[in-house]
TrEMBL record:
This is Genomic scaffold, ProqFM164S03. It comes from the Eukaryota. It comes from Penicillium roqueforti (strain FM164).
Length: 159
């Protein structure tokens, strides 16, 4: 399964995708261009399915940054922990059990020509990046402590 995007945000120490960026020439919206929103949902699902078993920095939300014409939007996709297993066919809920669903919430627009809009948008993106940095540092710290534990336990075995 492949989803094509224009750009993506990747971690510096943990080589994982943390946001995808899509630039289109058309306007967004259900009434004007529902296929744009369908495409974005398909990109999110593909992203979740393709890296669900490989992530070191687990996510329960995904960020899509979209630009169309002069506006920028953020779409935050959230899902329950069992959603990736459901997508991969590893979870078969019984009758009467609620299915896990992806929800996507749009924020924006931020108008590109507006200095105050761009300042606010930059602060939102910076906040997101800082949250990701904290998550990546936690992963690095866990990895370092587990490798030290392995090294000290192997030293103990060699003596």
């Amino acid at each position: 399964m492949t989803a094509c995007t224009n750009v993506y945000l990747e971690g510096s120490h943990i080589r994982e995708t943390f946001a995808i960026i899509e630039v289109i020439a058309a306007r967004r919206g259900w009434s004007a261009r529902p296929e744009v929103l369908w495409q974005e949902a398909a990109q999110m699902v593909t992203w979740i399915v393709t890296d669900a078993n490989f992530r070191k920095c687990l996510l329960d939300r995904r960020l899509l940054i979209s630009q169309d014409e002069d506006d920028i939007y953020l779409t935050l996709a959230q899902y329950p922990p069992e959603y990736p297993a459901y997508l991969q066919g590893d979870l078969c809920p019984s009758r009467g059990t609620a299915l896990p669903f992806l929800t996507m919430q749009d924020y924006g627009p931020w108008v590109i020509e507006s200095k105050s809009n761009m300042r606010h948008f930059a602060m939102v993106i910076m906040s997101y990046c800082l949250q990701l940095t904290d998550e990546m540092e936690k992963v690095r710290a866990r990895k370092a402590s587990s490798s030290q534990g392995e090294a000290s336990s192997s030293k103990g075995k060699c003596r």
